[in-house]
Design brief:
The chain is mainly α. It is built from 20 helices and no strands. 50% of the residues are buried.
Length: 454
């Protein structure tokens, strides 16, 4: 079997690899209590198993994307899946919580290779399969969404039947399956950088990479309030290191991140802004609504999980339809329609200030899932047509980081609004913020235009 004979299988394997990051970011939530008991931890300490994954994912995505652009997506995907398989095979035997957090960070780096690699491969795979790029991108988006949706369910089953170690073990066969199929069915890497190790290291802009990673991690650590009392120092450090990063990138050739080119690429910048703000609106509902139902509605966790399931499930169902609509009407039309529906769904969530009746919650979460599927898929395609082919890897990595920035911003604001108490009145204030952010997304979406050369 040749590398290019089965593009459909290659896309399926890339989708499996892409799903591992959202799957592991969501299913770990159900293991926190067990981890606390096994390692005798307090609540604040055990959350590092989540924080380590988020920080490594957010910082690692653009870096992995840049490596995919330079050295080839299939090579990078193979490395990432191998790292996941080895890390997850060792992690169950660790008896130190700090090492478990390190394993989670390594797993995040490995899974962070998948989405950028998949986006870089889409052009060639679409050509081989004789389908528009929207089709494989839609399948990749479905993998992202469905994995996040089933994560808590899968995690709950694994922890209840086995223990927290199973959350690592499940990744081993999935990563190896994705690795083997991509090796046999994906097109070989061509036209990538070669040369001596010294030359490659010299041209890799390692100081720029380190400055980028450090500045982003400082900023996210501050936003997550990982170190209470040091938030403003961390933000100040992030600004200083970020300024040094910008100074370095404007002078080094070739830069890790071409800021001049990025500044000139208005469509790509607008895609990033749309996705950051949109993710903030979505995670307001995804993180804020369960707390409202549990605290103000006195619903148990099992019922809340069922009531929230339509939000993710509907987004998965909407994705194939969105792909067809993009092919017929274009990215911009679908994007604008999706964000208009987002504003309507956000307004409808205001009904929960009057009643937390379960059937009403079920309908509203399903409605909220529609714009999530539509806008996420349209934004994916907008990213693809806005980025230059030789820079789609790093562009895709930054795109994924935008999701984390939106999610973290939402959690910070939720903490502010719910600080006085989790009640329907405070939920109403959050809905007003969601409407304001939805209006901003509408403006940004209207401003976006497909590049003439795309």
């Amino acid at each position: 079997m040749s590398n290019t004979s089965r593009p459909g299988l290659a896309i399926a394997a890339l989708s499996i690899g892409t799903a591992l990051n959202p799957l592991n970011s969501s299913m770990i939530a159900v293991a926190l209590v067990v981890l606390r008991e096994d390692f005798s931890l307090d609540v604040a300490t055990v959350t590092w198993v989540i924080t380590a994954f988020y920080l490594a994912s957010a910082a690692g995505q653009p870096l992995m994307g840049r490596l995919a652009d330079r050295f080839g997506p299939r090579r990078l995907f193979t490395f990432g899946m191998a790292l996941v398989a080895v890390t997850c095979a060792v992690a169950p035997f660790l008896d130190n919580f700090a090492l478990v957090c390190v394993a989670r960070a390594l797993m995040a780096v490995g899974t962070a290779t998948a989405y950028p690699s998949a986006v870089v491969m889409v052009t060639e795979l679409s050509r081989l399969a004789k389908v528009p790029s929207t089709r494989p991108l839609g399948r990749i988006q479905m993998a992202n969404t469905s994995a996040a949706a089933v994560g808590p369910v899968v995690g709950g089953l694994l922890v209840s039947l086995f223990d927290w170690q199973a959350l690592f073990v499940i990744n081993v066969p999935l990563a190896l399956l994705a690795l083997l199929i991509v090796q046999r069915t994906a097109p070989a890497d061509v036209g990538r950088e070669t040369g001596s190790l010294g030359t490659l290291i010299r041209d890799s802009d390692i100081p720029g990479i380190l400055a980028f990673v450090v500045s982003l991690m400082l900023a996210m650590t501050a936003l997550l309030n990982v170190l209470p009392g040091y938030r403003w120092y961390l933000l100040g450090g992030a600004l200083v290191v970020g300024a040094l990063f910008a100074w370095r990138e404007l002078r080094f050739k070739p830069p890790f991140l071409d800021l001049r080119l990025l500044g000139r690429n208005r469509p790509l910048l607008l895609v990033y802004l749309v996705f950051v703000v949109f993710s903030g609106v979505y995670y307001f509902a995804f993180f804020g609504l369960p707390q409202l139902l549990q605290k103000a509605g006195n619903y148990d966790a099992g019922l809340v999980g069922l009531l929230m399931l339509p939000l993710a499930s509907m987004s998965v169902l909407v994705t194939p339809l969105t792909v067809r609509l993009i092919e017929r009407f274009g990215v911009r039309s679908v994007l604008i329609t999706g964000v208009l529906v987002l504003a309507g769904a956000s307004a409808a969530l205001g009904l929960l200030t009057l009643s937390l009746w379960p059937p009403l919650v079920l309908v509203l979460t399903a409605v909220m899932g529609v714009p999530y599927g539509a806008v996420s898929t349209a934004s994916n395609q907008g990213l693809y047509v806005s980025a230059r082919p030789e820079e789609r890897g790093v562009a895709a990595g930054i795109f994924q980081t935008c999701r984390y920035l939106g999610a973290i911003t939402a959690t910070v604001l939720i903490g502010v609004f719910y600080g006085p108490g989790v009640n329907q009145a405070n939920w109403g204030l959050m809905v007003l913020v969601m409407l304001g952010l939805s209006a901003l997304v509408i403006v940004l979406s209207v401003l976006w235009r497909k590049p003439a050369e795309a």
